[in-house]
Amino acid sequence: MPSSLLDHQSMLAIAIEEAEQGLAEGGVPIGAALFDVTGRLLGRGRNRRVQDGDPSMHAETCAFRAAGRRRSYRDTIMVSTLAPCLYCSGLVCQFGIPTVVVGEARNYPGELDWLRSRGVRVVLLDSDECHALLSQFISAHPEIWNEDIGD
Amino acid sequence: MPSSLLDHQSMLAIAIEEAEQGLAEGGVPIGAALFDVTGRLLGRGRNRRVQDGDPSMHAETCAFRAAGRRRSYRDTIMVSTLAPCLYCSGLVCQFGIPTVVVGEARNYPGELDWLRSRGVRVVLLDSDECHALLSQFISAHPEIWNEDIGD
What we know:
The structure is a homodimer of 151-residue chains. With 151 residues, chain A is α/β, with parallel strands linked by helices. The first copy, chain A, is 44% helix and 19% strand. Chain A has a five-stranded mixed beta sheet with strand order 2-1-3-4-5. The longest helix of chain A is centred in the N-terminal third of the chain and has 20 residues, at 5-24. Chain A starts with a helix and ends with a helix. The interface between A and B is medium-sized, with 31 and 31 residues.
């Protein structure tokens, strides 16, 4: 069961790949991936607001969708380059995903305390790479960013 | 601005059509629709777990997706045949949808108190039609239902 910082960093690297691909497509550079506790990748995805005109596809929901139908999420770990918003935090809690690995929470604080209050383990890696990717996008496209977080 | 019971019932009728179509497809019969406050339909959808193998498409997220990108949801009303789960309630709160019209909360209580605590206006219509549609499905397919709510 991956619990070391290295393992989480390796998981985060997949989410960062997704964010980078999103940026290359002109999209909001936030990526996510769902793993099982053995480290097996179940699904990966990125924010698709711009690419698909789909406001429902935040990175976490996209990775969740890509993982397909599952009877239980008790053995899974959600990894995201950014602290999950309330929509994605609701997903995590509704489906009982017990652990969330977060790239950074500086560009957006998300709902980390709320997740913790509901018993979710939050691992905040405070990645400069994740922060830089998104902060540059926010500076260049504040209107898309505000739209994406409903602000 | 629709505020009467009749207007909400007319909105709910669209969500019920979606639920019925989902049932005909073998899917979880929950439907939803997003309207603006003048009563204009912005998007409609239904649970697509079975049809698309997509666990991210609850009825509310499907209707939200169908409405496409919007700068603001402050003038919208989300209508669902069932009380929204935490995932869909998170969506409502994140994007600032101020009103949720709910068909029924007997098959599933959802997060109505939580929505209210965050300032969302909840209109519960307690529809026997919505209740009957879903309760029959739950009796016939309890495993799909439990999977859909992460239970």
